[in-house]
Amino acid sequence: MTDQPEGLPARAAALDLLQAALSRRAGLDDALMRPPFSALPPRERGHARALVMAALRRLGPIDRLLDGKLQKPPPEAVRNILRLGAAELFWMQAPDFAVVSTSVDLAASRKETRPFKGLVNAVLRALARDGAPTLEPQNLCPDWLYARWAAAWGPDSASRIAALIAEEPSADLSFKAPPPPELAAALEAQALPGGSWRTGRGGLVTEWPGFEDGSWWVQDAAAAIPARLLAVGPGETAVDLCAAPGGKTLQLAAAGAATVAVDRSAPRLTRVAENLARTRLSAETVVADAAAWTDPRTFDAVLLDAPCTATGTFRRHPDVLWASRPGDVAPLARSQAKLLESAAGRVKPGGRLVYCVCSLEPEEGEQQVEGFLKRQPGFRLAPIAPGEGGAPTESITADGCLRLLPFHIEGGGDGFFAARFVKA
Ligand SMILES: C[S@@+](CC[C@H](N)C(=O)[O-])C[C@H]1O[C@@H](n2cnc3c(N)ncnc32)[C@H](O)[C@@H]1O
């Protein structure tokens, strides 16, 4: 990736990002928006982010190595300097001496880590001597999450899911209309089943062909499936109840439905508006809590992409693995049930409701469907057919829901659950 490690500012920003990523859910997203990271020049921002992602994708194996070298646990900031140093030594092709010396400089630059300069030097030199570790799927994942996946989907699937943690994902694109061959070629994009395209391109997305004129938006191939299951068309109405940043709203609007996008976060809804403007699509945007939104309208198609643990998004957001806690699942599942009740009231007779989450946890998927059907006898499941909307055959459950595991899409995809209901 780079021959020379960046200087101190990029490494200090990387340390701040890593600390934020590990301290709380969405901590990384917040830290990416503020200084010191946001104040770096673009190239150094790229390096700081890549360094943190390299560490988060292999945090389990790195910590095992460090535990073997440390006699007692050092302060967290020192451990984080070592984690970044190890990631750069093994997976960023930087010269060992440079990684060791810049990591020591970083430790020396802060009061709390300064007394541990010698430790940083000794541990990183020892790691460099030993060489890169082998990456076992089980070690790439926190134990509690791996145990959950093994219990829910079987040990073999858990291992295949976890093996993708260390892989850098390619970008997937959704197009407003099927792209002309010359645009697909310029984007180095290959068609995937269902209508998404996958590109191996790197660099700034805003500089790729077709970005400026709004021909496409970035959307994981798995994340693009749920909105297709509503199969909306011109003359229909649709509401996307947790809409930001808006990938699914854009799909509904591009398919011709008169679309309303609701999100409780005004700043996040601004991103939906920006995406609509860039793609020249239209939708009404509403800042509201979808569980308490008093709008009396009902819709032909209702999409609830509910807030969830997001454990299925670890390929692009490896921080979710390390910032999530076992206790996060139950409160989110309760809020999903509440949102589903509210969503049900917004479906016209004969209309469709798609519930989805980017989670690998059954409490947020299968168990929500079970509870909803008991509470809402006026709804029934409308089974999803194998292949429908790009749904891989092996993702379709016995009752016709989508349980997409990250390895079901060739090359990897987000983990997703979706269920489609119709109202009698
Ligand atoms: C999983 S993301 C949605 C992703 C989006 N559907 C897309 O495809 O781009 C969840 C969103 O739900 C919003 N949200 C969370 N709780 C909400 C609520 N009670 N009402 C409305 N929006 C909510 C969050 O602000 C966040 O933007």
Describe the fold and architecture:
By secondary structure, the protein is of the alpha/beta class. The protein is built from 16 helices and twelve strands. The strands form two sheets. Strands 5, 6, 7, 8, 9, 10, 11 and 12 form an eight-stranded mixed β-sheet that branches. The protein has a four-stranded antiparallel β-sheet with strand order 2-3-1-4. Helix 6 packs antiparallel against helix 7 (117-130). The N and C termini lie far apart (56 Å). Bound molecules: S-adenosylmethionine. S-adenosylmethionine is lined by residues 223, 242-248, 262-265, 268, 289-291, 305, 307, 339.
| Ligands bound to this protein structure | S-adenosylmethionine
Radius of gyration: 23 Å
Q: How would you spell out the order of helices and strands?
A: HHHHHHHHHEHEEEHEHEHEEHHEHEEE
Number of strands: 12
User: Regions with pLDDT < 50 over 5+ consecutive residues?
Assistant: 1-5
What distance separates the N and C termini? 56 Å
The outline comes out as: globular
Largest sheet: 8 strands, mixed
Residue-averaged pLDDT: 96
* Approximate helicity band: 40-55%
| Beta-strand fraction estimate | 5-15%
Number of separate helices: 16
Classification by helices and strands: alpha/beta
